[in-house]
Design a protein that fits this description.
The complex is a heterodimer of chains A (111) and B (111).
Chain A lengths: L4 E3 L2 E5 L4 E6 L7 E6 L5 E7 L5 E4 L2 E5 L5 E6 L8 E8 L6 E3 L3 E6 L1
Parallel strand pairs in A: 2-11
Antiparallel strand pairs in A: 1-3, 3-8, 4-5, 4-9, 6-7, 7-8, 9-10, 9-11
Chain B lengths: L3 E4 L2 E4 L5 E7 L5 E7 L5 E9 L2 E4 L6 E3 L9 E3 L8 E8 L6 E2 L3 E5 L1
Parallel strand pairs in B: 2-11
Antiparallel strand pairs in B: 1-3, 3-8, 4-5, 4-9, 5-6, 7-8, 9-10, 9-11
The chains are: A mainly beta (111), B mainly beta (111).
């Protein structure tokens, strides 16, 4: 079945350093969503990308959708301790109306 | 105040007992979902429902059951047939196939 690979699994950075997580699919995606889960919390929707080559920004977060719509990335500039958590990508599972989640990238930030 | 509620936040049960996890939403969303999350893992879909009185198995439905008698409610029963029930259970809802909104989760521990 459809899968989405997310790397890296863990990332430890010093506060102020940049961070990037990647999602890759072997099939063309209709869209991709990104969620953030704080430690002990629940996933919270960040953004959805739909168009080929799309780039969206939310303050220090930059989201990209590949030209072939098979990969996506989330980049955080100058990380802060508030960025700590696990970032998941999620893709639509055909016409069934549900999502397939990547395994997530757990970000820790050292002050 | 709209949202999704799950209760209880922590639940302890003895091995061999069935247990029902509550999920209620007042967002008027059509679709509801149940996920299981284990440490270091992504979200795995247990069951989902796109409309009242209808639901479908997800990727790991064995040992679980659900009902959808009301639009607002989608309870999950973890039966004694589930071999490794200890996990973090997340309920979500969405308007058709859009963004999913998650509840705070129930952490189930089977002793």
């Amino acid at each position: 079945g459809q899968q989405v690979m997310q790397i890296p699994q863990y990332q430890h950075v010093q506060e102020g350093e940049d961070f990037t997580t990647y999602c890759n699919s072997s099939t063309t995606l209709s869209n991709i969503q990104w969620y953030k889960q704080r430690p002990g919390g629940h996933p919270v929707f960040l953004i959805q990308l739909v168009k080929s080559g799309e780039v969206k920004k939310q303050k220090r977060l930059t989201f990209q959708f590949g030209e072939a719509k098979k990969n996506s990335s989330l980049h955080i500039t100058a990380t802060q301790t508030t960025d700590v958590g696990t970032y998941f990508c999620a893709v639509s599972r055909g016409s069934q109306g549900n999502l397939i989640f990547g395994k997530g990238t757990k970000l820790s930030v050292k002050p | 105040d709209g949202g999704i509620t799950q209760s209880p936040k922590y639940l302890f049960r003895k091995e061999g007992q069935n247990v029902t996890l509550s999920c209620e939403q007042n967002l008027n969303h059509d679709a509801m979902y149940w996920y299981r999350q284990d440490p270091g893992q992504g979200l795995r879909l247990i069951y989902y429902s796109q409309i009242v009185n209808d639901f479908q198995k997800g990727d790991i439905a064995e040992g679980y059951s659900v009902s959808r008698e009301k639009k607002e409610s989608f309870p999950l029963t973890v039966t004694s047939a589930q071999k490794n029930p200890t996990a973090f259970y997340l309920c979500a809802s969405s308007l058709r196939t859009d963004t999913q909104y998650f509840g705070p989760g129930t952490r189930l521990t089977v002793l």
